[in-house]
Write a sequence for this structure.
């Protein structure tokens, strides 16, 4: 289980993140929201060990994150960054197969998992294609398959961190992807996902963390967090909040 | 997408090519030996009991001249190609070349120093001459690369972009230093320097060969073990770290292997360019970028291509000899331009 | 009894040896180093030559022989493919590992000194004579050479009674560009001195000067040797690439002389006395009318 305790992160002299106390619960999807510069990506970087906190600590199970050896940590914690700079003509299944690097599961099992992960990311039809020939959205789904393969099949004790996984996807795929992540989480893994779209966050996440200027403003269910007053003060946007007619979760409508 | 060659087919094909190139390198040369003589002399070298009559010349040419030369070509070609793969992985760019970390220019600097200082000191005893030159070239290559690596490190992390710039700067600096040595040199030394800069497998001897063979074997056995991590590194350094790769250690290993391998190759055979750039590219075009295939295939391809280039160098102007660097440049430079124009594979 | 047989055996051996020595002389020669190859030809060895290096351009007929390439970067197999019995060259020949390989193939490798002075030349000619079986000729050639040089010396002394020795610079270049200046200890320096000129360059060996320093030294006579071009082309190239040379006294007085660069390779060569006559004529122009 991944847990942040009194996390403070500084860049140079400036404090970019402060007072973060966060527990990622198994089977739960936690959405992170906030305007640009609020510290969302910084939080993710701190949680996966890329940035070292100036105060506080990140714990994975009973040990500080920094004490985990590379491969062991990689079997429990996977990160999907916002964009990829891969510039070589690997085939799709080879890229997804890289997610199996921390494991010693053998070629046959790896191939099965790769196929399953591509299926889960709605990218099964991309099998055999060259990565460089794919569109931005297709590439994103391939990388999602990769991190799913890294934690496959997903169970309690594992954590998946996603930085805006829907940014380049069309509306249909935005939903398919988040649905796939949700299904993955339902097998026990804890998921933290940074999202820009408030309605997607409302629909797919069990809890939401609202950040502003590096500080937590609210950490609660979508119904509690997505109310006009906090949204106005954080985003500067006047909104109406209604219930989704079929599903019942909050629906944010700009006024 | 163009169909890729399967690994097994590739390795069989490259294996055959390598054996063929080795055989041609042993069988062909300015001295025309009857094929039967070559075969018998080769068998004798392998220790088989073969009648020795009339074989003296064949044994000498084969054993003392062509065999060490072939071994040198295999080792240099293999290690240069391997280092090319390592650097293209480190810089995550298929246009990278082992020279980017300064090892080639450092080796040139070391050699220039040895050549000019040697003649200034009134000549080194003939027995030591080639060793001193090789040693200075090797140390020069290692020294400059160590400096480039050090410059690229900040807060315990190696910044590849900084290393690239440091490499460019130090290459320029080494170049000026070599220029200074060139100026201080007299006509004779100048010519020696020029020829060293063009590279040659000429004069290969077993005594000077074994350090290179050791280093090449070491590098060729080590790097393929890191193939999967190298693949992950191409995703990006943080992505590789998230997959559990010790990125700092991997970068250090890549720089070190390149410095050792290229340093030893340049020390043994002078500057031979384009092999590290062109060979990994060709293999990638045919078999894809997976390092598990790319690394061993590049060794075979590099070794074969260099031997074939050496054949051209030896035979084109026989009984004179072309410096092999000219042949590789003649093939490599147009190919490089073609790649640039077409857009990277 | 035993003594007699021994004595007879000794005599027989000596006689046989005399006859055999002609057969033991190397018949297939490879030569490297311009002047050395010229001496081999002068001593009648041209018919024995099967290969020469790129600096061996005289006599013209040598150019038709197979070329073993640049003398410092010989290929062992290349030389061996000519099936030579002997390889001769100066200490400039190399690289050393290749020479060792050639030696171990049973080829005689003889290194001659390229130091430009008469004692060295005498030693070289003697040695060459022995190897070619023409010791008498070699001795004759040397005596003649020495005589020519003595005559030359007299000529210069005469000329210097009427004129001061001119300040001279000798430039060696290729297509006019980046000329090297011949300093002390070079064959070129020897040439200039023998011709009665005063070499303004005081460094050792061949060094490149900035053209300003060249012009600053302001030589009375400029001698140039171009590896790539010859004649008017070479002269024009020299001044085109180094325009500041036109400001020198030598250029203004039109005292710019051309020298064949092959004269400078491999030590003192047979054609030097003739060039000396030409050089002296150029250095002491009034004297040229009465030169013998």
């Amino acid at each position: 289980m991944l847990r942040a305790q009194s996390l403070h992160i500084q860049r140079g002299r400036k404090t970019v993140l402060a007072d973060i106390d966060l527990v990622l619960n198994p089977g739960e999807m936690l959405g992170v929201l906030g305007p640009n510069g609020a510290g969302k990506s910084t939080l993710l970087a701190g949680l996966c060990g890329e940035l070292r906190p100036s105060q506080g600590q990140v714990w994975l199970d009973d040990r500080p994150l920094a004490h985990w050896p590379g491969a062991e940590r990689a079997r429990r914690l996977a990160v999907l960054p916002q964009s990829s700079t891969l510039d070589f003509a690997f085939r799709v299944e080879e890229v997804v197969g890289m997610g199996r690097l921390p494991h010693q599961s053998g070629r046959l099992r790896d191939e099965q998992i790769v196929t399953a992960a591509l299926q889960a990311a709605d990218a099964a039809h991309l099998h055999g294609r060259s990565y460089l020939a794919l569109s931005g959205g297709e590439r994103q789904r391939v990388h999602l398959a990769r991190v799913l393969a890294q934690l496959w099949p997903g169970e309690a004790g594992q954590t998946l961190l996603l930085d805006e996984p829907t940014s380049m996807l069309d509306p249909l795929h935005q939903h398919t992807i988040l649905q796939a992540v949700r299904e993955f989480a339902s097998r026990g893994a804890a998921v933290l996902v940074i999202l820009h779209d408030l309605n997607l966050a409302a629909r797919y996440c069990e809890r939401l963390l609202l950040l502003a200027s590096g500080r937590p403003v609210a950490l609660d269910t979508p119904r509690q967090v997505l109310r006009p007053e906090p949204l106005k003060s954080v985003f500067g946007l006047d909104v109406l909040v209604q219930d989704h007619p079929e599903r019942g979760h909050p629906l944010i409508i700009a006024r | 997408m163009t169909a890729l060659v399967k690994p097994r087919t590739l390795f069989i094909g490259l294996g055959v090519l390598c054996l063929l190139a080795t055989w041609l390198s042993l069988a062909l040369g300015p001295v025309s030996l009857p094929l039967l003589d070559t075969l018998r002399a080769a068998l004798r070298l392998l220790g088989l009991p073969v009648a020795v009559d009339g074989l003296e010349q064949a044994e000498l040419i084969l054993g003392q001249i062509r065999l060490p030369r072939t071994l040198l070509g295999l080792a240099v070609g293999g290690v240069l190609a391997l280092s090319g793969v390592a650097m293209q992985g480190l810089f995550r760019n298929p246009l990278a070349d082992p020279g980017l970390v300064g090892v080639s220019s450092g080796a040139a600097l070391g050699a220039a120093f040895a050549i000019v200082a040697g003649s200034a000191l009134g000549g080194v005893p003939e027995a030591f001459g080639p060793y001193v030159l090789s040693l200075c070239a090797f140390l020069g290559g290692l020294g400059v690369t160590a400096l480039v690596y050090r410059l690229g490190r900040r807060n315990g992390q190696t910044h590849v972009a900084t290393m690239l710039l440091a490499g460019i700067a130090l290459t320029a600096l080494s170049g000026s230093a070599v220029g200074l040595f060139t100026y201080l040199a007299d006509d004779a030394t100048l010519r020696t320097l020029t020829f060293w800069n063009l590279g040659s497998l000429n004069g290969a001897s077993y005594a000077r060969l074994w350090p290179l063979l050791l280093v090449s074997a070491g590098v060729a056995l080590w790097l393929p073990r890191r193939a999967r991590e190298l693949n992950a590194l191409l995703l990006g350094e943080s992505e590789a770290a998230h997959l559990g790769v010790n990125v700092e250690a991997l970068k250090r290993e890549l720089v070190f292997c390149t410095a050792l391998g290229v340093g030893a190759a340049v020390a043994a055979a002078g500057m031979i360019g384009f092999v590290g750039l062109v060979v990994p590219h060709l293999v990638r075009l045919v078999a894809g970028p997976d390092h598990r295939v790319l690394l061993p295939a590049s060794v075979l391809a590099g070794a074969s291509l260099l031997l074939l280039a050496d054949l051209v160098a030896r035979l084109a102007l026989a009984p004179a000899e072309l410096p092999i660097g000219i042949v590789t440049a003649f093939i490599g430079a147009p190919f490089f331009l073609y790649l640039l124009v077409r857009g990277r594979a | 009894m035993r003594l007699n047989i021994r004595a007879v055996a000794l005599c027989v051996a000596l006689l046989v040896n005399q006859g055999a020595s002609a057969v033991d002389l190397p018949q297939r020669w490879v030569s490297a180093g311009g002047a050395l190859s010229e001496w081999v030809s002068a001593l009648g060895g041209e018919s024995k030559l099967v290969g020469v290096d790129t600096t061996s351009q005289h006599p013209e007929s040598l150019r038709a022989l197979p070329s073993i390439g640049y003398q410092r970067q010989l290929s062992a197999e290349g030389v061996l493919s000519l099936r030579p019995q002997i390889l001769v060259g100066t200490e400039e020949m190399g690289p050393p590992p290749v020479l060792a390989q050639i030696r171990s193939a049973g080829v005689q490798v003889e290194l001659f000194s390229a130091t430009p002075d008469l004692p060295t030349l005498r030693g070289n000619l003697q040695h060459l004579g022995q190897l070619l079986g023409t010791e008498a000729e070699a001795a004759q050639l040397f005596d003649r050479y020495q005589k020519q040089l003595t005559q030359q010396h007299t000529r210069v002394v005469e000329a210097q009674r009427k004129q001061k020795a001119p300040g001279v610079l000798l430039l060696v270049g290729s297509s006019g560009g980046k000329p090297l200046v011949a300093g002390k200890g070079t064959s070129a320096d020897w040439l200039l001195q023998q011709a009665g000129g005063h070499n303004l360059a005081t460094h050792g060996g061949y060094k490149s000067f900035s053209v300003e320093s060249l012009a600053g030294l302001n030589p009375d006579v400029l001698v140039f040797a171009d590896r790539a071009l010859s004649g008017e082309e070479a002269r024009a190239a020299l001044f085109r690439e180094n325009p500041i040379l036109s400001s020198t006294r030598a250029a203004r007085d039109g005292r710019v002389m051309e020298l064949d660069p092959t004269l400078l390779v491999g030590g003192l060569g047979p054609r030097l006395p003739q060039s000396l006559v030409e050089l002296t004529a150029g250095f002491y122009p009034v004297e040229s009318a009465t030169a013998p």
